[in-house]
Design a protein that fits this description.
This protein is α+β, with helices and mostly antiparallel strands. It has 3 domains: 104 residues; 75 residues, Orthogonal Bundle (Helix Hairpins), CATH 1.10.287.130; 160 residues, Heat Shock Protein 90 (2-Layer Sandwich), CATH 3.30.565. 61% of the residues lie in helices and 11% in strands. It is built from 10 helices and 7 strands. Strands 2-4-5-7-6 form a 5-stranded mixed β-sheet. A two-stranded antiparallel sheet has the order 1-3. A hairpin with a 4-residue loop joins strand 4 and strand 5. The longest helix has 56 residues. The chain is elongated.
Length: 384
Amino acid sequence: MTTSPPVTTSMRRGTGFGTRLLAAQAIVVIGGAVSVWLVAAAVAPQLFHKHLKEAGIAHPQAETGHVEQAFTSAMILSLVIALLVSSLTALAVSWYFTRRVQRSITEVAASAREIAGGRYSARLTGVGLGREFDQLAETFNQLADRLDAVEITRRRMLSDLAHEMRTPLATLDAHLEALEDGLRLPDTETFAILRTSTARLGRLAEDIAAVSRAQEHGPTHNPVHTESRTLADAAVRSHADRYAAAGVELIGDLTDTAPVTADPERIGQVLGNLLDNALRHTPVGGTVTVATTHSQDGWAEIAVTDSGEGVAPEHLPHLFDRFYRADPARTRTHGGSGIGLTIARAIAEAHGGTLTAHSVGPDAGAQFTLQLPITSVSADDRSD
């Protein structure tokens, strides 16, 4: 069970942001008012006396002093009242704005605490304080959505791992117990079953390590100048026998081609995964087509299209998530490990390309399209 970090004394007793903001604004307003009053009191009487002289208005010394004193008193009283009213108005506006900002920050903090506690359904609404605050709310909600998706994937992954490990572990335990009780002999068949179970666990560990490297560090590759048709043709030829044995027709529409810079082994891994995936979801008598095309905006495309089960619209955005399966009831024996497409997309992106999926819906087939950037090939490269 996870526990929240302890709340320190400074966190409990610290002054709130709203209070500090209001205090800062009050200091600025009051300081500005006092500064205006001091400057006016020091400068205005002298300016008034100077203008009297320049105007040639002659008065006895006593009358002149009384006039200047009357002006100073009236000016100071009027200025004090004006500054007091403007300061109170400014503080009232500052208090209202500060309350709104404080309320928004409190909502952000409360939602962040909920997410920290594992409740990823927390969301923020637009607070109407400007574009920056609305962008903050939108970014926060995107973060919450991402964390929610990651948590769902994590739970599914743990469930899938437990399911995947249960069968080989049960097989190992049963056969080891049978060997101990003398119910089975340590013959070739028994050792073959034990090796199959341990190999299955080993493949699971390799798959987990592979997808982690692909997503977090990026797969390594050794690119060379080649053609998109060459890459697709190699994949078709390597899967021809398997498709024939399964009763599924594999068609290669490889009339178009474009120069690309790619690692043939890595791209072969991508196309092999797509062809394996298409074979699993295409019934006997169905067809799978591998076609090469190129677009005017600089992309070489290799599309793998099947006439199989298709994909429901709600599953399309998650097909490339690790350990995601559109049909949870499908076993790993028939449904794959759930990370092949994740690794395939990571390899495509490492080549500067993309891997996308499209399907009209169930029983309408699916199409996976690999895009690689077209590269120019020099005469020296062609001669090689």
